[in-house]
Amino acid sequence: MTPSRSPSDDEKPGLGPSRPRDLAIVAVVTAVIAWILVRYNYGDLPPLPLLAGLVLYVLAALEVVIAFIVRSRVDSRDVGRARGQLHPLTAARVLALAKASAILGALGTGVWAGLALFLWSQRDLAAADHDKPGAVLGLVGGLLLVGAALWLEYCCRAPDDPTDDNGGRHPGHA
């Protein structure tokens, strides 16, 4: 009698593409923790500057620029060790940046979402009204960073990499 195998047994261990589901879980767990911390400590926090989440926008913009560069090099198959080409180690570093930024964006999204949820539950608190725009801007910045990081990660794929659309098989294989 052979033991039944689940479909996940055939998957190779290793580094795969970031899954939006995993990033959403990180964001939700972080939002719950942030909401709890803010709920019990809001009175001790300083006023929230409007541009507190600005760094997330800057990181997202940088990653979009890098994604355009990487995508053009990969599409033109200009990857290699020759001068002027995208070095494979640089591509690996860019991929590591994209994966780390996706996690950072999910964490930032969770923190800003937890803060925003708390602020919207405070109807009669003037300080909460003052902090709401900054929390919304931070939340949008976190979402933009996640989107930019996922796109940068996608741009790092080789043109003949297997995709999720065909079940992990190389194109042209049945």
From TrEMBL:
InterPro entries attached to this UniProt entry: DUF3180
Q: Which residues does UniProt assign to the signal peptide?
A: none
Any transmembrane segments, and where? 21-38, 50-70, 91-121, 133-152
* Sorted UniProt keywords: Membrane, Transmembrane, Transmembrane helix
Descriptive protein name? DUF3180 domain-containing protein
What lineage is this protein's organism placed in? Answer: Bacteria, Bacillati, Actinomycetota, Actinomycetes, Mycobacteriales
